[in-house]
Amino acid sequence: MKWQQIPLGIIQTNCYIIEGTNKTCLIVDPGDEGNKLINLIKSKGLTPLAILLTHAHFDHIGAVDDIRNTYKIPVYVHKLEEKWLEDPILNASQSFPSIGTVKIHPADHLIMDEGVMKIGDFEFQVFHTPGHSPGSVSYYFEKEGFVISGDALFQGSIGRTDLPGGNQSQLLQSIHNKLLTLPEDTYVLSGHGPITTIIDEMDSNPFLNGY
């Protein structure tokens, strides 16, 4: 299994294509530029099985319907953000007039609990990691040694908490209790910026030191 990081849109939100066996893949956070993403998927000869959302802010969901309609695949989001896809206030697109309002059709599946999720040949764990937003989740691929953290944890930083439902104390708890407990060599695939590791953030992230 391998991943590819694709920054999309003017905010350069990281979308991830997780490639498995038999040329199947999962698509995580298709935030914008649907045609670019579709062309990339076609060029690689991949068959998408599902769209996973780490959370429902506008810059992570903008191309969801493009991908869903093209491949007829389901979308997964946490139950606490069920209404966010359709609501420009909750998904924060209304706060950024230059972006334009973002409204996406409802998710096909709601993530109700933490635990193991299986989609096709993919098996991974779902962690509820709120703080950046109430329904933020992280997807941990234990055998492959990586976690997709959305906007919870970045290289040298953490997610902003000034948007609807944000809570810095809760975010720090999520990071320390769910992410920093993973093996130190685990790769962290963040919603923005470069890939990092758990040990690097434990050692040098100024937002985590002294918590």
State the distance separating the first and last CA atoms.
34 Å
Approximately how much beta-strand content do the residues carry? Answer: 25-35%
What's the overall average pLDDT, rounded?
96
Dominant shape: globular
SSE-based structural type: alpha/beta
* Total of DSSP H or I helical runs spanning 4+ residues: 5
Q: In the CATH scheme, what's the topology name? A: Metallo-beta-lactamase, Chain A
Domain Metallo-beta-lactamase: 12-192
Pfam family, one: Lactamase_B
Cofactor: Zn(2+)
GO molecular function, one term: metal ion binding
Write up this protein.
Strands 1-2-3-4-5-6 form a six-stranded mixed beta sheet, covered by helices on one side. A six-stranded mixed beta sheet has the order 7-8-9-10-13-14. A two-stranded antiparallel ribbon has the order 11-12. The protein is globular and about 45 Å long. It has one domain: Metallo-beta-lactamase, Chain A (4-Layer Sandwich), CATH 3.60.15.10. The protein has helices at 34-43, 58-61, 64-71, 168-179, 198-204; strands spanning 2-8, 13-19, 24-28, 47-52, 75-78, 109-111, 115-119, 122-128, 137-141, 146-150, 153-154, 157-158, 187-190, 196-197. It is built from five helices and 14 strands. Helix content is 19%, strand content 30%. Strand 11 and strand 12 form a beta hairpin. It is α/β, with parallel strands linked by helices.
